[in-house]
Amino acid sequence: MTWDKIAVLFLQLLWTVHRVTAIHRHDIYPYGMLYGDVALQEGDDETSKVITLTKPMYFYEASFTNLYVATNGIISTQDLPMEKQYVDDGFPTDFPVIAPFLADIDTSKGKGSIFYRQTESPTVLKRAEADVKRGFPDATFTPTHAFIATWENVSAYEEVTRSSRPSNRVNTFQVVLAYNEKDTYALFLYPEDGLQFFGTRPKESYNVEIELPARVGFTRGELSYFFFSRTEGPYYSVTSNEQSVKNLYQKGNIGEPGVWLFHVGNRYSFQNVVPAQHEVVSTKAPPVLVAVFSDEDYTEEEYPIDPDFQDPTTTEFLEPEQDSSLLERLNQEAPLGQSPLQPSVSGPGEFPQPDPRNLPPEDVTQPQRPLPKHAILQVYPNRVKDVPPHNSGGQVFSVEERVNFESGVIHYSTDNKETCERFQQQCSQNAHCTDYPTGFCCHCNSGFYGNGRHCLPNGAPHRVNGKVRGTVLVGGTVVQLDSIDLHAYIVVGDGRAYTAISEVPEPVGWALMPVAPIGGLFGWLFALELPNSLNGFSITGAEFTRRADVTFYPGNQRLSIVQTATGLDTQNYLNVDTHLQGSVPFIPPGATVQMEPFKDTYQYYPSLITSSSVREFTVVSAEKGTETLTFQVRQNITYRDCTHGHRRGLETQELRMERIFVMYVKEERILRYAITNKIGPLGAGETEPENVNPCYSGNHDCDTTAQCVPGEGQLFSCQCATGYSGDGRNCYDVDECAEGLSSCGAHSHCVNLPGSHRCQCEGGFEFGFDGRTCQDVDECRDQPCHAQALCSNVPGSFHCQCQPGYHGDGFQCHPQNGRPKTQCEQHRDSLQSRNDGVPRVGAFIPECDEEGQYRPQQCHGSTGHCWCVDSRGQERAGTRTPPGTPTINCYEPGRLKTQCEQHRDSLQSGNDGVPRVGAFIPECDEEGQYRPQQCHGSTGHCWCVDSRGQERAGTRTPPGTPRINCDEPVYPGRPKTQCEQHRDSLQSGNDGVPRVGAFIPECDEEGQYRPQQCHGSTGHCWCVDSRGQERAGTRTPPGTPRINCDEPGRPKTQCEQHRDSLQNGNDGVPRVGAFIPQCDEEGQYRPQQCHGSTGHCWCVDSRGQERAGTRTPPGTPRINCDEPGRPKTQCEQHRDGLQNGNDGVPRVGAFIPECDEEGQYRPQQCHGSTGHCWCVDSRGQERAGTRTPPGTLRINCDEPGRLKTQCEQHRDSLQSRNGDVPRVGAFIPECDEEGQYRPQQCHGSTGHCWCVDSRGQERAGTRTPPGTPRINCDESGHPKTQCEQHRDSLQSRKDGVPLAGAFIPQCDEEGQYRPQQCHGSTGHCWCVDSRGQERAGTRTPPGTPRINCDEPVIVPPTQRPETVCERWRASLLQQYAGQPDSRHYLPQCDSSGEFNPVQCYGDSSYCWCVDRNGREVPGTRSHDAVKPACIPTVAPPTMRPLPRPDVTPPPAGTSLLYAQGQQIGVLPLNGTQMDKQRSSVLLALHGSIVVGIDYDCRERKVYWTDLAGRTISRASLEPGSESEIIINTALTSPEGLAVDVARRRLFWVDSTPDKIETANLDGSDRRVLFDTDLVNPRAIIVDSPTGTLYWTDWNREAPKIESSSVDGQNRRVLVQDGIGLPNALAYDSTTRQVCWADAGTKRLECISPNGTGRRVVHSNLNYPFSMVSFANHYYYTDWRRDGVVALSRDNQSTDEYLPDQRSHLYGITVAPPHCL
Q1: Which of 162, 444, 942, 1229 is deepest in the core (most CB within 10 A)?
Q2: pTM of the model
Q3: What number of helices (H) and strands (E) belong to the chain?
Q4: Residue-wise over 877-891: b if at least 16 C-beta within 10 A, else e?
């Protein structure tokens, strides 16, 4: 055996040892406050509050909804007894227990922490699913929920004496419960060195040295047996002695030491716990570097990242010191296997081992554009990739749970696809679910908007609630914000967002005024949508995280804003919590902050949205005058994205913040932001204001709960939002609950919400897994009854009954012992077991103590009210407390509240602690009794009351009248009867004045109701009974004979009931202005009905329904209802529809059209309320230019006449705004006699004047401030220059006074900027260019020599800040103590601090490509001698001076054109020899990375792709030509490019979204040819004569060369064997073969298009990147030589050209003088 084989064998043996090392602490499931955990209170015997699971969990055979976490290493499904009842006893316990380490644990005085949380994190669930598969390979299990509890560094309880010291031994362990609607699995995790003690001493060991080993396992607890006794339930024990406890971290049962898996529950049948059976033993060994790896060791699958594993590097602007350190965050949040960008604690970036924990990494997902595939934070539960690896048949697969961890290969299956059938409950109740080939997506129903998971009604206003926390440094003052309230109100119809933060301390209140981005989030979420755009909520829904970094200049203060949206609450309002951390500039108290409108561009990626902007704000204060400061905002928003359905076409949108108002109210300590927002495509909204539809300008009159629907031009309509009704101008909430429109099912009740409703389960019921169906809660599963009682579950409740031989309430049972039941026990038992043995649902059940006496405090289980009782069980007055309020201590003496005090206090503090406005508040005396006289503070009425507070009859006096002496008897002695009280209450209303037109009942001498009552106003009469209630069918209208009330009469007809119901409203008073139908003698509807208030009349049928077309307005002849008549015209219908609103009453202030005798529109119409008049056509449409305001002469609509000019319309529209009152301070244009704009216009308020053209547009340079001579607008003269305008604008502000201390530029005689400028106030001087821009490095402070601005200035280099790459590298070096070894990964940065495009582990050959942010490019990872061909995405630093950006044409003849980063070079050919002496630069393109290049010989133009700019451009080879961008959208990583000269088409590859596209040469008719089965496409060529396309895909796992026709047909693989890195591709027209240069195999090969005749031309290349064939030579760019290499076809001669500027060369093409 050779030494090489021995070495390999030795390394493999060491690897085997390394594989079974116990799990490390950083490999257990992430935990802690960062991940949303709750910390258990410190102590020796603590139990958590009840943890209500979002979905029930099966433990053994029973379903549980509650969990409790205890200090002593256990979780239970019921509240735990005191520890002495179980902690020192053996297994099993008599209550349900999940015990990862049951022992006497103590966390008091900081001795460790205990964390727990429940989660639906897709990453956690996916990891748990994979762990279950490792232990139960045949199980089909997809968890939907998980619960994680972690005991970190906890100690054993010890009795410390003077002679003993506390032990430093601590334990760390974890339990994970993963479950779905059917199964539950438990994972116990014991990290290496996590168990340092293995048992604890009993507290009562009486100095006997004894230690009880920890108990590990599961117990169901005691169960009811028959109906009379209880029996021990099933249990499962993992440990039995100390050695078995030690085995917990030394062994495991799923192939990994320290990890134990158990099946612990099933819905249908479950006998006992089932452990996994893959046992493994740990052997401690140091980590060993593995020498050889197979490809399978690095098979990866992509999983979305969620809040449990959020990667802070996505927020590229977060500084390390701001949130611990970048390294620590990466360490804490890396879940399983670590990518190079997410190193782990034990070795950040350790050389990846083929360990099961490294499969699958959870830090990557697949975007569609333009960020690389590993860049996006994604929290939607996406379990399938858009383009999975190893896709052989074109089918999209999802990841199956079965993972072969021996080989490291993940198998795929379509059996586990998420479907609507299984997961529809994740959609909003206002959404529908749609299945797609790879999964499902939710989509909002019509009338709603959102992301499908959360939907809101279109047009309805919205509210946001939340808290603001954090620490802000203001000047030198640190201000802590502790959960202060944030509320926002958004009028979605016009994009107005109002945000208020309350209880803001004064120093930070002023300082946060400029931080409008806090409220700006809500503006973006609910911005007014311009055409072809979506606001934020339509994309993210109600769950997202927004991180913003605000940097203020010039002070460089920095504030981090993290805003987390956690969904919609029960009111359908959004919940958003805000965290602020950092510093802000000091703003003097009393200052104001002004912010101008601005625009912000948002970039959209799957699951990620970013933006960056710089904004100015002005601070005006008494101390400092006016200051203008700036801040930069960089933000990203991560959210759940559904990748299965159709992609929205969004890439960029522009948010326009048009009005920004900020203020801090010192007295109220409230910080307010008001912002008006619109969102649309880039450049949208630039239309002239008068051409913008009111829906988009926000100038409509729709209700705030309505949606504005744009029409053509300026037309629009208003449509009430879903859940509201009305005409759009006035909308009212629809009460779906009252109108029976709710979707609530059985055992639930409807709760109305503004614009919507929600369903709430009744008591004793809960929502099932679908989140919508109410299911009975089996309370008995939590064993609420006493051990000697039986629990019976009933729908919505349960009851406990003591077993025979015991008595009690079922919650407490005691042996009978011959004692008879007490009164309390009899009372309780009589209520608990009625005739049917079932307690009354919702009834109060009294509680008795052990002696059978009433407990001093009683509570109602259903209502939550509590009170004190005496020994007889009678409630003690004044002790009742409502639910949610502190209960009274019934054991303490002291006067309780009297009835009066309770009455008073209950009214003074309503539901929300605020007194009810206008409510009567009783007055109590010093003893708490009712004062004899009570008065209503609002109405002024007074009356006398008895000792119970009841009004004494006949004592009420209206306001302004003498009050009765309540200490004297009231005369007459007879109290008022019901009739007299009824009569008197109506005769003296709230203000003592009888209600006009109200019915006043008549009482006889005895005070009883007279049998016949009549309404004094309407004349109607009817009979009543002794209670004053109307007897049916007895009502008679005025002027008709009255019924004898002592005799019976016929029942009322439909008409009479209709009439009487309207005449006699709720209080017996007819509704004012309501229509009252008229009935004939028989009680039938009269054929003709008229409205008494409006005068309208119409015909009705026998049912009283109006006959169409018969309505006539007041003052017009009525229709003969016995004859047919003509139908109404359009005008009449229009008029009548407005005159007769929903309730028959015309809308106040509405315009009512006028119709002539024929029913046609009158030529002139006038608005009765505003006085405006105008002419209309035959359709009633207004004729342009005919509107006249009130008080002006009307236009003769029968004469043609001149219409208003543009100036007149402009003037009149401003002069007559709302209510005919001009806008105060608005500019009103002046028109001449012809209606044209006067040449000179002046602003009446400001005094500024200027010249205008014929369209009224201001002529540049003609504006003069007040008090200065005006320009003669009829003379020509040179307009003001830019310098003069700049100077004059600063010298004359709004009040004509220059800004104090402002810099005023100086202009020369020609109006140009003087080369040197100085600030008159500060004394600073500097040089400027022709545009007035300061030249860097020329500023001098006062008192120092000035620079000569006519001489060149040498600018010293400035110290640039550290980049992300450099900061990360430094933090890792610190982690490695400055001595990293070859196992460790260190980011490699270039001279500019940017990430090198190729990253490798140490000095190994294990490398991959990264993008500009350091994120790995999928499909590029390799571990062979040839590093991947990675292209940088960040342009090199700009060199000064900048070269000319135009073309320097090549010399005559044929030349090679090559791409070299920021330039395109020319290399002339002399025959086939490279003429190196005449090489030159064709075109300099600073800031670019030119990659692909090709030449159009017909038009002599060069085309290229720019990776940095994400564009495709072209330029002519003519002298002085400049570049032209032809494609600049939807490009991410454009690389190879080819020109089809014959068809005038362009083809290119985009390597990030993995697609091939084509377009015309001018960029039009763009379309995608291929977007499947591509991983890393690079080179592309076209053979124009045959119309064939060829391209390479250098996917490291399956490289290939493919071909197709230019129209995308006949796609096939040409070469897939024997290739490595096929970078370069060329077509040899002489041999008619396709040739490629391979950086992996080092060969240049050719093959015929039909796949035959493959041959090797050259077999010793360096590192080719691009190639072109010309004559009998191949020319390729080489990355090892950084030059162009020439190679003859016969392999006899070679040559090379190395440019003076050494850097990578990319694409190469040939430019002949004419087409070959």
Answers
A1: 444
A2: 0.36
A3: 17, 92
A4: ebbbbeeeeeebebe
